[in-house]
Amino acid sequence: MSEWPNTRLSRRRALQVAGLSAFLAGCGTQSARSGGQEIAFWHLLSGGDGERMNAIVGKADAEMPNARIKQVILAWGAPYYTKLAMSAAGGRAPDLGIVHMSRLAGYAPGGLLDPWDLNRLARYGVSESTFTAPAWKNSIVNGKTFALALDSHVFAAFFNTDLASKAGLLDSSGKLPEIKSMADMKRLGAEFKKLTGKQYGLGFGFLGDGGQLWRLFWTFYSQHGATFGLQGDKFAYDADAFGESVETMRQLVDGEVASTSADYSTATSAFLNGEIGLLFSGVWELPQFQEAKMPLGAMPIPNMFGTGIDATWGDSHTFVLPHQSDPDESRRELAYEAVSRILKGSLPWGAAGHTPAYQPVVNSPEFKALRPNSDYAVTASYTHYDPPSSFSGSGSNFMTQFGGVIQNALIGQTTVKDAVADFAERVNVLMSKAVKR
User: Fold this and answer.
1) pLDDT given at position 259
2) Cis previous bond, 134, omega within 30
């Protein structure tokens, strides 16, 4: 968007900043502005997301004459979470950090984060009423609010509107026909396949990708009204819902209308090139589709189980206060102000595919005019986050374990029943090794 300043965060710059993280994390240095203080803000947002965050932070920074927000960008996944935990445990924590909501259960109970003061937040126009119910509920651990969601990013269905129109599939509002069963889904795929003359009509890139497999599974499983229990001594799950969800995934990629062996990039490229008409993927892919000037529509993943339950896998980038044993109260107050300004200025974040969590932004005419973003924004109201535990969540070994087992069922190397049993055994091992809090 034109209002973003030309402030590109290069990979080299990100690495340079990461190398300085240990020094900067504990600093509350005076900024270049007279009398101002520097707020250290750690996050793992690079590439396009990093550029957008840089622009939003830059605007918030300009509105705060008494402070400077210093971003520290670290490598995504385990490296980031390990360094964040070490900084909090070692007394050198930054003033602000980003944590995926799905990782909150591994950080808040162990004293690695400080809770947000709700009265303090309210003075800046931030409260429970400004977030969706799932985002607020999942930010609470042991009765305290430890996270403020920046967004909701979900698994969705993208479709090529030109192909859909040529196939006569769109209604007067430009939407696809309602999909209520796997038979409906396969008919849709067959229509796209017939129109393009290609081998497949639908796309789901899953090969070698535990994250992709988990996201679609958790969507289907949650649509059954089922959940996982990872807090006791033994893995608790709904065996029937688990089996039916995996079987549905297997039917989706049975080689008729979707490939049995597509990885993430293969499926995405096929969609970009107009070789398939519908793609299951994360909403973070929206910018590259728009950059390619694709004729694009999007919708929530349909419920094909007849349960009537709206549900989708999702996660949120959230703002947290890494634990400081003796926080500088003036800097902490500035951290509250900075987060409130970033939340209120998160429209550009929504333009990138993520649905902003701050509801005044979502309810604004500017966001509602964004298409297809506003067509799937409703998913934020029924997002199902990963089951909470110290070992689950974004980029975790839990997802890797899931992918390694369930992929075998999808490609026919094992039965669905055996795959479910195998995964249950692995989760029991993870639970036995987890730190009991």
Assistant:
1) 96
2) no
- CATH number for the segment(s) 154-314+396-433: 3.40.190.10
Q: What is the pLDDT of residues 223-241, one digit of tens each?
A: 999 999 998 889 999 999 9
Beta strands in 115-165 (DSSP E): 140-141, 144-145, 148-149, 151-160
Give the model's pLDDT for residue 436. Answer: 56
CATH of range 11-150+316-377; options 2.130.10.10, 3.30.70.2750, 3.40.190.10, 3.40.50.2020 = 3.40.190.10
Take residue 198 and report the two structure tokens written for it.
């290609």
Nearest to 251 by CA among 298, 307, 305, 297: 305
Q: Could you tell me where in the chain the CATH 3.40.190.10 domains are found?
A: 11-150+316-377, 154-314+396-433
Average pLDDT, the chain: 90
Query: Over the stretch 120-138, which tens digit does the pLDDT of each residue have?
Result: 999 999 999 999 999 999 9
Sign of CA dihedral 406, 409, 410, 412: positive
216/206 Cα distance (integer angstroms): 10
Per-state percent for the chain, helix, strand, coil, to nearest 5: 45, 15, 40
**pLDDT tens figures, 242-256:** 999 999 999 999 999
Identify whether the C-beta of residue 126 lies closer than 8 Å to the C-beta of residue 148.
yes
**Residue type present at position 62:** A
**CA geometry: angle 321, 127, 121, nearest 5 deg:** 45
Distance of CA 419 to the CA centre of its chain: 26
Does pLDDT of 30 surpass 90? no
The model's pLDDT over 134-184, given as tens digits with 9 standing for 90+, comes to 999 999 999 999 999 999 999 999 999 999 999 999 998 899 999 999 999
pLDDT, tens digit, for every residue of 269-321? 999 999 999 999 999 999 999 999 999 999 999 999 999 999 999 999 999 99
- 203 closest CA partner among 162, 252, 161: 252
Element (H, E) at 432: helix 416-433
Q: Using pLDDT thresholds of 50, 70 and 90, give the confidence band for residue 435.
A: low
> Phi/psi of residue 27, each to 5°?
-90, 135
> Helix 210-222 and helix 397-410: axis angle, to 10°?
80
β-pairing verdict for 67-73 and 113-114: unpaired
Helix, strand or coil, per DSSP, at residue 361: helix
Q: How many residues in the chain?
A: 437
In this structure, the number of other CB atoms found within 10 A of the CB of residue 23 comes to 11
